[in-house]
Amino acid sequence: MIGSQSFVACPRSDGSLAAYTSPITSYETSLQEGNLSFPVYDVSATYENNSVTIFATLELPSNTTTVNHVWQEGPISGNLPSIHGLSGDNVMSFGTVDFLSGKIETIKGGKGMVLKNVHGVLCAVSWGIMMPIGVMIARYMKLLNGADPAWFYIHVTCQSLGYLVGIIGWGTGMYLGAQSSGIQYKGHRCIGITVFCLATTQVLVGMLLRPKKDHKYRIFWNIFHYCIGYGTIILSIWNVFKGIGILEPGKKWKEGYMSFIIALACLALIFEAIKWYSVLRRKKNESQKTLDDEATGEQAS
């Protein structure tokens, strides 16, 4: 983070262990050696039992005994530290040190981590679960006898609830991005914004510009509605997986969501086969009925 006063221990190619101070003045820092904003003496480091310990004597700023402490580890490139990981333990390794009392307090997660978890759950449930289910309701429930117009209202309810919950999740994500300027997940963020824009367009067009079934422009509205809807679903599922990769909540969460998507896809294939069987059978019956009517007419004449 910009403004941090860092102590660095870095192994060299000759096998030695360099220890020095480095003020961080930009996000593109390479942790070059430099003086900190307060005096530091006798910086050294040791490497034992697969652990690095840094030693130093420092003068704290006046009237300051407690400091915020962040520790990190990362790869080495050309005798210089490279960027550390941006997820999991790397974003939870911080705490406070009271040099007067010697008390050390580590913080796991904190408010930021709670908000990230809330954001992840809301977006996974809304964009990643409710939206796909709503699409399946619209596509397959209408095949049931007597399901019209019930399927439409169930579809609208599911998508509306998903959209409202998704707005909260999206807003939480935008807030997290604004509060964490040093850590940006550009791909996840851009996909999230795109999903929100597509879903908002879908809602507005669906509510305000939906023509009647017999309108001559209804076919164009249907094409637009399908393309935007399926595009939103595909991007949403993709972004949920990207979010799981960022949060790293545990293997079971990724496997659980993947199992849900696979199960949903299998159901879609089954329903799709039933749908086309019903459509072809209905067309065949209608064609046969037409032939029978024509034959009856000829006999009558």
How does this model look, in words?
- With 301 residues, this protein is of the alpha+beta class.
- The chain folds into 2 domains: 5-107, no CATH class; 110-282, Four Helix Bundle (Hemerythrin (Met), subunit A) (Up-down Bundle).
- It is 54% helix and 16% strand.
- It contains 5 helices and 9 strands.
- The chain has helices spanning 110-140, 150-179, 186-208, 218-247, 251-300; strands at 5-11, 17-23, 40-48, 51-58, 66-70, 76-77, 80-81, 94-98, 104-107.
- It has a 3-stranded antiparallel β-sheet, with no helix packed on it. A two-stranded antiparallel sheet has the order 1-2.
- A hairpin with a 5-residue loop joins strand 1 and strand 2.
- Helix 2 runs antiparallel to helix 3 (186-208) and helix 3 (186-208) runs antiparallel to helix 4 (218-247).
- The mean pLDDT is 83.
What features would you highlight for this structure?
301 residues, alpha+beta, Four Helix Bundle (Hemerythrin (Met), subunit A), 2 domains, 3-stranded antiparallel β-sheet, two-stranded antiparallel sheet, 5 helices, 9 strands, elongated
Number of alpha- plus pi-helical segments = 5
Summing up helix and strand content along with how strands pair, one would put the structural category as alpha+beta
Supply the CATH architecture of the largest domain: Up-down Bundle
* Helix and strand element order: EEEEEEEEEHHHHH
Strand order, main sheet: write it out.
5-8-9
The strand count comes to 9
Uncertain stretches of 5 or more adjacent residues: none
Global outline: elongated
State the name of the first-level CATH class of the largest domain.
Answer: Mainly Alpha
What percent of residues are in strands? 15-25%
Query: Main sheet?
Result: 3 strands, antiparallel
The tally of domains stands at 2
Binned, the helix content reads: 40-55%
Radius of gyration over C-alpha positions, nearest whole angstrom? 30 Å
Mean pLDDT: 83
CATH topology assignment of the largest domain:
Four Helix Bundle (Hemerythrin (Met), subunit A)
The CA-CA distance between the termini, in Å, is 92 Å
Main location: membrane
Protein name: Cytochrome b561 domain-containing protein
Keywords: Electron transport, Iron, Membrane, Metal-binding, Transmembrane, Transmembrane helix, Transport
Subcellular location: Membrane
